[in-house]
Design brief:
The protein is mainly alpha-helical. Helices cover 54% and strands 0% of the residues.
Length: 211
């Protein structure tokens, strides 16, 4: 009987040691786990180890503006972003993140190298380029470049859009235009006049855009 107890004790200690390995942990509730570890062990499942997600359901984070990543993670943690896909995945994942972990996650993904995305239709992208650079004056739509930069590289709290998934961009534009899922941003007013063809065009341009 004592022998059985010893085996159980050894197994318990080994399991505890594994959980305590913060260099390989997936424990989102442990403030000792570095943000980089969480990025590789948890966030990579959707966003890719290097931030270049394959599925358009999940945004690319490589070279994204650090300030923007920090802001969005804090918005998810506080439930300020209630768009369905975001809340479904990110509310729970961000719930226990500390400010330090959020800063480290943003550091990690913002310093990864963006890779070219799958090529979108050239004719559609050409129409999107005009919208991005000049807006749509007849619809009172301002140029996207005025906030996101001439190469869509992002500026501080304004996100990088270059090489982002076109489908993801359209989905976010729909959320800004038709819901209150992402409140408190200028995009609610900027995108209001956009048509479906406008959104598809600018999304194609941004998916193809490389710096």
């Amino acid at each position: 009987m004592k022998h059985g107890h010893s085996i159980l004790l050894v197994l318990s200690v080994a399991a505890s040691a594994g959980c305590a390995n913060v260099d390989r942990s997936r424990d989102l509730a442990n403030p000792a786990v570095p943000g980089k570890v969480l990025a590789v062990q948890v966030c990579s499942n959707c966003h890719g180890v290097d931030g270049n997600s394959v599925s358009p359901a999940f945004p690319r984070l490589a070279e994204q503006q650090k300030d923007y990543i920090v802001a969005q993670l804090k918005n998810f943690r506080a439930h300020h972003r209630s768009d369905p896909a975001g809340s479904e995945y990110m509310w729970g994942l961000s719930r226990s993140l500390t400010d330090k972990q959020i800063d480290e996650l943003a550091d990690y993904f913002s310093t990864q190298k963006e890779r070219p995305n799958v090529h979108a239709d050239d004719a559609l992208a050409a129409a999107g380029k005009d919208i991005f650079e000049n807006g749509v004056p007849s619809q009172k739509v301002i140029a996207c470049a005025s906030c996101h930069g001439p190469k869509a590289q992002g500026i501080g709290a304004f996100p990088r859009l270059a090489e982002q998934h076109g489908d993801y961009i359209v989905k976010q534009l729909d959320i800004f235009q038709n819901t209150q899922g992402r409140p408190g941003t200028p995009m609610e007013f900027v995108v209001h006049p956009l048509t479906g063809s406008n959104k598809n065009a600018v999304a194609a341009y941004l998916q193809n855009l490389t710096e």
